[in-house]
Amino acid sequence: MTGRETAPRPLLNRRLAQFGTTIFAEMSALAARTGSINLGQGFPDTDGPEEVREAAVRALRDGRGNQYPPGPGVPELRTAVADHQRRFHGLDVDPDTEVLVTAGATEAVAAALLALVEPGDEVIALEPYYDSYAACIAMAGGVRVPVTLRPRDGSYHLDLDELRDAVTPRTRLLLLNTPHNPTGTVLGRDQLAAVAALAVERDLLVVTDEVYEHLVFEGEHLPLASFPGMRERTVTISSAGKTFAFTGWKVGWATGSRELVAAVRTAKQYLTFVSAGPFQYAVAEALRLPDAYFDGLRADLRRKRDLLADGLRAAGFGVYLPQGTYFVTADIRPLGATDGFAFCRTLPERAGVVAIPNAVFYDHQEAGAPFVRFAFCKKDDVLTEAADRLARMAP
Ligand SMILES: *Cc1c(COP(=O)(O)O)cnc(C)c1O
Predict the structure, then answer these.
(1) Which ranges carry the Aminotransferase class I/classII large domain (predicted)?
(2) Pairing mode, if any, of strands 171-177 and 122-127?
(3) For residue 289, which of 80, 104, 90, 45 has the smallest C-alpha distance?
(4) Contact partners, residue 366, CB within 8 Å, separation at least 6
């Protein structure tokens, strides 16, 4: 008997202790309770192309993919991914050894970090960052090092000096996201070239999340893997969710050198092993849709972006017009508010609209505090109604 009471050990381990329920759950519950328009979570309110949906039904009926598909993904999809990388980006990848199909981009990011990060390694991520990054870095035992994108002249910018200063001898990996959620920043050729040069100089691995590769309204999306010296050090990740408006299917992929893909596959095979069998065949067909589909998607979302952005400006917000993705970041300070959390918690009552406080995507809370994120991947009449409600917002 020591006579000393010890506190009961917490159930959740130390790596995950800081990750409670996501803000999306809280805000979606609030949307339901108040009958609000939910522009918080980023999923489309209409499904993708009918022929792609039919392709999934056909695969399911024909008994393709109803049993465990091959671990790296069905050959039809791996080939379609390789062809897509060549068609849109001029990248050559071998469908047999350099493509890995995953349970969405989320699993690809998780598997890449679990495979490539040693406990104690530093991982640089652009802040604000997609919410799964912090948790996956933590699960891998890595140390998160945020580099903050800075708002200036109506858009967000990567400061290359800040990035360079963040690299230490312990840095193993850069986790990039372009087009960037939530800021809508699309890294340009010069910036990507500088990032690539830094990665080569400091011998860093790079994981790039390019799920919005087809949602670029200004400029163009360039994969980092296409820059000199990057092919052998870059894992490129994308997914069908955003490009084809089937976020529930969770079909994603990673491409890279044979060695990198083999490493990611080692982790992936013990996470889900495989997933989404019949949907893999449907996504293989989707990736071969004519250019008109991709052009139409972009034009459609550009119109929605402008519709919501105009509405937000009319309601008095400061607006950061995104170059890509389907999110607008809005500054609440012109409305006399400074705390995005408090603003988003009362917005459903005041206006019947739900947004997400950008601070949830930051370590440096103060950098994100006065900004909120609205999704515009919604029907035009929903966006118009949301804008009307915001313009009539109670003080
Ligand atoms: C939506 C999103 C994902 C998740 O993609 P899934 O294919 O649904 O797993 C990953 N990264 C970013 C930046 C996203 O916005």
Answers:
(1) 37-390
(2) parallel
(3) 80
(4) none
- Answer whether 243 contacts ligand 1 (Cβ < 6 A): no
CA–CA distances in Å: residue 181 to residues 34, 91, 95, 107, 373: 27, 24, 28, 17, 10
Cβ of 179 less than 6 Å from ligand 1:
no
Regarding the beta carbon of 252 and ligand 1, being less than 6 Å apart is answered yes
Q: Is residue 213 lining ligand 1, measured as CB closer than 6 Å?
A: no
Q: How far is the CA of 4 from the centre of ligand 1 (A)?
A: 48
Point out which residues pair with 145 in neighbouring strands.
124
- Which DSSP category does 117 fall into? P
Give strand pairing partners of 123. 144, 173
Distance CA 177, CA 100 (A): 19
Q: How far is CA 178 from CA 129, 192, 194, 214, 385, in A?
A: 11, 10, 15, 11, 30
Using CA positions, which residue lies closest to atom 2 of ligand 1?
211
Ligand 1 binding pocket includes 241 (Cβ within 6 Å): yes
Q: pTM (2 decimals)?
A: 0.96
Under 8 Å between Cβ of 215 and 297 = yes
63 Cα–ligand 1 center, Å: 28
Q: Which amino acid is at 333?
A: R
Write out pLDDT tens, residues 342-376: 999 999 999 999 999 999 999 999 999 999 999 99
Residue 42 banded pLDDT, cuts 50, 70, 90: confident
> How confident is the model over 186-200, as pLDDT tens digits?
999 999 999 999 999
The answer to whether the Cα torsion of 219, 178, 50, 54 is positive or negative is positive
CA 145 to each of CA 16, 110, 168: distance values in angstroms, whole numbers, following the listed order: 17, 17, 10
